[in-house]
Amino acid sequence: MAGEPQADCLFCKIVAGEVPATIVHETETIVAFRDINPQAPTHVLVIPKVHYPDAATLAAAEPQVIADILREARTVAAGDDIEETGYRVVFNTGAGAGQTVFHAHLHVLGGRGLQWPPG
Ligand code: 5GP
Ligand code: ZN
Known about the structure:
Elements: H1 10-16, E1 23-26, E2 30-34, E3 42-48, H2 55-61, H3 63-79, E4 87-90, E5 106-110
Antiparallel strand pairs: 1-2, 2-3, 3-5, 4-5
Helix pairs in contact: 2-3
Residues 10, 19, 21, 33-37, 45, 92, 98-101 line the site of guanosine-5'-monophosphate.
């Protein structure tokens, strides 16, 4: 069923506590944890506890959870004290855009200058 945990999904395993992660915050609907291969001093992933392959699919099915994820970005930025200096939020969507884990996730990046457009 849509949204149900997938046995072969890394981020479902992090939600279930079966794979360790450095969790910075958790709510009823989302988990925020540090990226294992950080691209900036702050690099946190915010994921829904429910499984959808990407953000667009999640937004179509459970728009409130996308709102929870975006709200969490600000909480992460406040926690790492990067609200003033700025931060970037990214949903890579599709392999051609660099998505490698097909459980929706928001990247929150900051703590250094960020170029635009990205590579
Ligand atoms: P994507 O490329 O799909 O947008 O982002 C996936 C992110 O997940 C990458 O930035 C990658 O470093 C991160 N990642 C992959 N495996 C793990 C893991 O086991 N633990 C954590 N914390 N992050 C992971
Ligand atoms: Zn999953």
